[in-house]
Amino acid sequence: MTSTHLNSLYTEIIFEHDKRPQHAGLREPFDSEVHHVNPTCGDEITLRLHLTGSDETATIQDVSYDAQGCAMSRASASILADLLREQSVHHANEIADSFELSMASRGKDPGDEELIGDGVALLGASKFPGRVKCVLMAWKAYRAALVEAQAAIDRRGA
């Protein structure tokens, strides 16, 4: 994909993830569950995270979610789950960091497609501050779920 994804708010990849969401539906087992709402537009997500291992060996075994709202927020949740499942927490955080940095660029950072995969399709929203919140809601939910999951694992190990 070229930098043309920065010139379009909706792309075929977004429509595809919206119509055929990856890893949707809340599954067990899970280590944490968070619920986020975007009050400005009504988008909502409930996201569950299941980790294996701990500390440097921690791996995201599963990301499951129930997302309601606009196509951008639902596609973002699908892309996030597809990118982060079965990744080490360290690598997943590299992906999230890169994606969030590109989203903050207001269309100036084309993103690292090798790292953020289909996430580049969402970067057109970076030019529209009202849409950035829709796209980032799933990613903020992931960050919150990760903190809770790591705390739960630490409590179990203690």
UniProtKB/TrEMBL annotation:
Q: Which SUPFAM superfamilies does the entry mention?
A: SufE/NifU
What Pfam family does this protein match (any one)? Answer: NifU_N
Q: Which residues form a coiled coil?
A: none
**Which positions fall inside the NIF system FeS cluster assembly NifU N-terminal domain?**
10-134
**NCBIfam families in the record, alphabetically?**
SUF_scaf_2
Q: What is this protein called?
A: SUF system NifU family Fe-S cluster assembly protein
Natural source organism: Brachybacterium huguangmaarense
